[in-house]
Write a structure and sequence with these properties.
This protein is of the alpha+beta class. It has three domains: 4-96 and 289-306, Rossmann fold (3-Layer(aba) Sandwich); 102-112 and 181-277, D-amino Acid Aminotransferase, Chain A, domain 1 (2-Layer Sandwich), CATH 3.30.470.20; 121-178, Dna Ligase, domain 1 (2-Layer Sandwich). The chain has helices at 23-38, 99-106, 108-115, 128-137, 161-164, 241-251, 288-306; strands at 4-10, 41-47, 52-54, 57-58, 62-66, 69-72, 76-77, 80-83, 95-96, 122-125, 142-147, 157-160, 174-178, 195-201, 204-212, 227-230, 258-266, 269-276. The chain has a five-stranded antiparallel β-sheet with strand order 16-15-14-17-18. Helix 1 packs across helix 7 (288-306) and helix 2 (99-106) crosses helix 3 (108-115). The longest helix is centred in the C-terminal third of the chain and has 19 residues, at 288-306. The radius of gyration is 20 Å and the shape is globular. The two termini are 19 Å apart.
Length: 307
């Protein structure tokens, strides 16, 4: 009998939907389940919020038998929820990450309003007329168009403001941002466009890596062909550390937390590109840091289940 059960919540309906349609994500989640098992716990996958019955009970769940095989369990009671979607806070269920952290990390304008001193100019746009007005306020030659919420670079447009003024936006709200010129790179690491991801677990930098875009692109998401290289703590630009510390101090009230801050290093210093509290888990073979993340997650879930 397991001492505790962790439910990994994903909003899509089917077990084979994202992220389990990607080999390295399947492997990473199976590795997390093994760390939870090592603490005498169990990990299950729960999908669709409508399957939640209250008091920790979901009408269906799946157990990972290995990275390719799953067992449908039916009704399953969990002790803590690992929210990888947009689960609405329930008073009867401990949730990681805290919904306040998820909100500031997934709503790009909420993040800007809270930490605008560290960000490029970001404008909230609710219709086509506001879109044209926003472009006129952008001082850089290029602008960035992003969905208000979203991950993995999906729906992002980067181009000159002249070309973007011809775009007919189909879905609102969006944000319009000034373009960050990261073409000078990060000294000693890369000499071209990049973003620098710094991941924190309960206030400590647990890993960092630098992503570079594929040829001809300006977005560096790994899911879209970007490359990443791990960055040792001593390699981090000194000027990013006070920003990291200031942001985490503001968010420490949520308790246990695992999130990242993505920076662009520009001629005007580091600027936040975005934040993410739903980081994709990566396989242990890519870095010992990813082993440590899974161990910390498992330990945290065990603690939360006993609170």
């Amino acid at each position: 009998m397991s001492n505790f059960v962790v439910g990994v919540f994903l909003p899509e309906k089917n077990i084979s939907d994202h992220p389990f349609d990607v080999d390295y994500y399947r492997q990473a989640y199976f590795e997390l389940s093994q760390e939870i098992s090592a603490l005498n716990g169990e990990m299950v996958i729960v999908r669709e919020e409508k399957t939640y019955q209250g008091k920790g009970l979901f009408s269906r769940a799946w157990k990972m038998l290995d990275p390719l095989n799953y067992q449908l369990l039916g009704a399953t009671k969990i002790d803590v929820l690992f929210d990888k979607g947009e689960f609405v806070l329930k008073a009867d269920l401990p949730i990681f990450n805290h919904p306040d952290l998820n909100h500031v990390c997934t709503d790009k304008f909420a993040m800007y309003e809270r930490f605008k001193q560290f960000c490029p100019l970001t404008l909230l746009v609710n219709n086509q007329q506001e879109y044209f007005i926003a472009l006129e306020q952008i001082s850089t030659d290029k602008a960035v168009i992003k969905p208000l919420a979203g991950q993995e670079g999906i729906g992002i447009l980067i181009d000159s403001t002249d070309k973007l003024s011809n775009e007919q936006i189909k879905t609102f709200p969006i944000v319009v941002q000034e373009f960050l010129d990261t073409s000078k790179g990060v000294p000693g690491i890369v000499e071209d466009y990049h973003d620098l991801r710094i991941a924190l677990f309960d206030g400590e930098i647990i890993y960092s890596y630098l992503r570079t875009p594929p040829p001809g692109r300006l977005t560096a998401n790994v899911s879209q062909g970007g490359k990443f290289v791990m960055v040792e703590p001593k390699q981090l630009p000194e000027e990013v550390l006070p920003i990291v510390q200031a942001i985490d101090a503001e968010l420490a009230y949520v308790g246990h937390r695992f999130y990242c801050i993505d920076f662009g290093i520009t001629p005007d210093g580091p600027k936040i590109i975005e934040m993410n509290s739903r980081l994709g888990l990566l396989p242990n073979q890519d870095s010992s840091a990813f082993v440590e993340v899974k161990k910390k997650l498992a330990k945290t879930f065990a603690e939360m289940s006993q609170a």
